[in-house]
Design a protein that fits this description.
The protein has 211 residues and is an all-alpha fold. The chain contains eleven helices and no strands. The longest helix is centred in the middle third of the chain and has 28 residues.
Length: 211
């Protein structure tokens, strides 16, 4: 073995980094938590937990990498949606539906984002905001401006609208204890997701449409 080659590079199977990230995502989704144990991560993934240090530095680095993976997908999807040739109303309806689908898939995401911003140093917190929150905020501002220009949206504060939409879509999927104790179910089924998607679209659009 080449003396410059680290043991981890030899022992790590192809796709190990991605498998660690996906396994961490699965654990947090299934457990309705924003943390993992390295022992469970190792057991579920079938990989040596030492690979976390190799790929990410530590568990905090793994959490940051997971946030980057998930948030980058969202920003790219929003950019693609904003580039499509469609009316502001249709664009917003599709966006709200996509936000619900995102939180169904990754219900931990908003909590993880807030946790990392809170626990990171100033430089890292600004990196997260500049990479993911600012682009989304600008997209909301443009979307609302276009809708007001076309006479289909009321003039509303884009910042407040961001919190309204994110809060409505996120809260449902991060409230499994409420579902369990008040509604006797913990199952986040596709049928429930579809019902909530339509519910959010109807309620949010009713608040911004000019008519």
């Amino acid at each position: 073995m080449n003396q410059r080659t680290k043991p981890s590079e030899v022992e790590a199977p192809a796709g190990a980094r991605e498998l660690l990230l996906q396994t961490a995502s699965d654990i947090m989704r299934e457990g309705d938590i924003v943390d993992i144990s390295l022992s469970e991560l190792s057991l579920r993934s079938g990989l040596n937990s030492a690979l976390v240090k190799y790929y990410f530095g530590n568990k905090a680095g793994l959490m940051k990498a997971l946030l980057d993976r998930d948030m980058a997908d969202i920003v790219q999807a929003v950019d693609a949606l904003m580039a499509k040739d469609m009316s502001p109303e249709e664009r917003l309806r599709r966006h709200i539906g996509a936000v619900v689908d995102t939180y169904y898939k990754t219900p931990y995401l908003n909590r993880l984002l807030m946790r990392l911003v809170r626990e990171s140093d100033e430089e890292e917190a600004h990196r997260i905001a500049d990479s993911y929150l600012t682009p989304l905020s600008r997209a909301y501002a443009k979307l609302i401006k276009d809708g007001v220009r076309d006479g289909v949206f009321r003039p509303v504060d884009p910042q407040l609208f961001y919190f309204t939409t994110t809060g409505a879509c996120d809260r449902f999927f991060s409230s499994r204890l409420v579902l369990k104790h008040c509604y006797d179910t913990e199952a986040l089924t596709e049928e429930l997701r579809d019902r909530y998607r339509e519910h959010c679209i109807d309620f949010i659009m009713a608040g911004i449409l000019a008519r």
